[in-house]
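To: structure subgroup
Subject: Chain for Friday's discussion

All,

I'm putting the inputs and outputs inline so they're searchable in the archive.
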Amino acid sequence: MNECVMPAINYHLATVVMESPSQHLVEDPRFIAMDACFTAFDKDGDDLLSITEFTLICRALFRNDKGHIYVVPQERLEQMFSVFDKNGDGFIDREEFQFCWNHWIKTIVRPINAFLVVDVQNDFISGSLDISNCSAQQNGLEIIDPINKLINTIEFDAIFYSLDWHPSDHISFIDNIKKRPLHSESPVDADTAQVYDTVIYAGPPPMKQRMWPRHCVQDSWGAELHKDLKVAENSIKVYKGTNPEVDSYSVFWDNKKLSDTTLNAQLKMKGTSDIYVCGLAYDVCVGATAIDAISAGYRTILIDDCCRGVDLKDIEHTKETVISSNGIIAHSKEVKAMVEGRDRRPELGYKLAMELKNSDSVLSQRNSTRRPV
């Protein structure tokens, strides 16, 4: 590969967000950069990009901050190419490349990043539902320092903190189990059910529910964020689990998807493309949130060393689900380069391309929101 390709694409992509609304279209620096990028990769000069030339773009795009090129499987290259070859003629022309440039390349190089810290609350660290007492025996306190370091050293576009925020009569509390009838097919009855058992409430509709100790009751010490966790200025708190009749693991939705939180609306308002997720517990609320973020259409990165969980097998299952859904499992040391667009993962590029196939997806409707230069 020509060694000038990477500096050239980085130069052109670094200028894409320059705003010159008063200039004529052909004089706009954004279009000059886009045109120069197209020309740089149109190796045979036919004013069209073939799959081979598109592959060169992907080799330039998908690299880490050390210059290592990520290998993209041929099948995925072809699937991404087809998203931008809108007329299906086997080439990307300049008009088609404008869509590729504005909605795909610019997002990959200059993502809008949200950091979501899930449920780092007293009860999960040293209170009634201290996860160190669960089967994985992991210490929730260990994630606070690496989370604080990310907050102190990385300029996220938005930072969110979620809080489990249960009313005292919440359906998930084991001491409330006799307040609602169980379904005849519930595997355990109200007299024999213990903490961590799963029962089926009668409803309607019938609903499975894992039973937990009383935890994170609204306005209690146990529901407070841990005192050592840094709460960033201008950050946003999202409260979940407030409906007594349904549990809410994900920060996006309750478990039955009957109602959503404020999170998705605020992410859309900020033009978010990428969500970095961490917190407690890995295989419960963090995992549910990461999977819902992917389902909602966001490029999603789960920060492995900033999470602790309940059950080792469930933690591994969570990781497998995130990866198989085109999410990323990353270490906190890798996050800064990813946020700054210097470490560009092909899995996230593929996720974005697949979302762009659907005009209703959140990433298709971002209105080209960009970080200022």
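Points worth raising on Friday:
The chain has twelve helices and eight strands.
The mean pLDDT is 90.

D.
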